[in-house]
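Subject: sequence -> structure tokens, single chain

Hey, anyone have a minute? Need the predicted structure for the following. Not urgent.
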Amino acid sequence: MDKFDEETVKLPFGKKDLDAVLCFPTSVRTDVHTAVILTHGAGGDMNFRHLVSLARALASQGFLCLRFTCKALNLSYRIKAYSAVWDYLKTLQKFTIKHAFFGGRSMGCRAAAALARRLSDESEDGVQGVICLSFPLHPPGQMHAHRQRSEDLRMLPECVRVLFVSGTEDNMCDRDLFDGVLKDMKAEAEVFWLQGGSHGLTVKGRSEESVMDEVNLKVISWIKKEV
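Reply:
Had a minute. Here:
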């Protein structure tokens, strides 16, 4: 694995700052052309182990990754925070970003998809793809919420690619309902089902490290295919 560097940064967001970490390859710093933004779900923060592992794996493969914390449970607020992070990323003069991917875990990927949809409505030069780790299609046992929660996914244009990483035992993603969403989407979507995986992408009988390695490999191979 190639070496990477990390920088802790404070991102301006209204009258507040957002805590974030910039992770990038050490050896090819000036040749980084692909960036990924990641954020966490309704609980935890940017230091959720799966996000840290993915960010460092991305950097080791030559990508820039900016992960950030926004603990608000209001989706609209989360989207505004995500937009501020995107604006910050575009100001980084030491990198020439040509390809951008938005991603997140659970509620974080809802915000990522919503912002990607909004930007694609404004311009075709916005974001290239969205990475959804455990997309929360509905609260546990509340399947009726899936239409509202999937609206941004269904409205994404064809020019945006989407990667879903979900566990087969995720109680917030009914398989039949999810298949229906995929059929309704205009965007090209790929789904990686983690066998036995929960909403937290944990698998009984497997180490957390082996699961993270499998997920990271899938995400990286998908991005390399798209750029």
